[in-house]
Design a protein that fits this description.
Layout (H helix, E strand, L loop, with lengths): L21 H10 L5 H14 L2 H13 L2 H6 L6 H16 L6 H19 L9 H5 L4 H7 L11
Helix pairs in contact: 1-5, 2-5
């Protein structure tokens, strides 16, 4: 994309850690017991959901054809990633200055970058997991709440 001079935006968060105690913070974080019970339970639920061949075949067909109506009708896959990410962030927050709401900050950063791109560019393309778009509090719903008109793709 850069060879065609198409601007690429990758929203990020930046935190500056004081190096005087970084080694101690890393050691303290490594001794933290991860509260990963929710992560494990959601991962098992996710694995079990994927084993439902009929539902997953329907999900694959709907995804391949852009059938958002069908995708939203299907039972959502359990979100194991956010539970696992939260377990790590919670452990880090106990020993470092990483804020516990880092996930929300990342989402807000993405939405701000998307809003900026939609305002300034004639056309915009974003790559995100389908689950980040469609879930109840996903990016599409967040953009709707910010006043954007969301048009689902149509199959002719």
């Amino acid at each position: 994309m850069r060879t065609k001079k198409i601007p690429v935006t990758s929203p990020t968060l930046e935190y500056i850690f004081k190096t005087d105690n970084l080694r101690g913070q890393i050691k303290a974080a490594s001794r933290q017991k991860l509260a990963d019970g929710e992560c494990f339970a959601r991962t098992v639920e996710f694995t079990e959901a994927l084993s439902n061949k009929q539902v997953e075949d329907a999900r694959a067909r709907a995804w391949a054809t852009g059938d958002l109506a069908k995708l939203t009708e299907l039972p959502p896959l359990p979100d194991h990633e956010s539970a696992c990410d939260q377990a790590i962030v919670n452990a880090l927050a106990m020993t470092t200055e990483v804020p516990a709401d880092v996930g929300e900050q990342l989402d807000e950063s993405w939405l701000a970058a998307a809003g900026n791109a939609l305002t300034k560019n004639e056309s915009t393309l974003a790559f995100v997991p389908m689950s980040d778009l469609l879930w109840e509090h996903g990016y599409l719903e967040s953009l709707r709440k910010r006043g954007y008109e969301i048009l689902a793709p149509g199959i002719d």
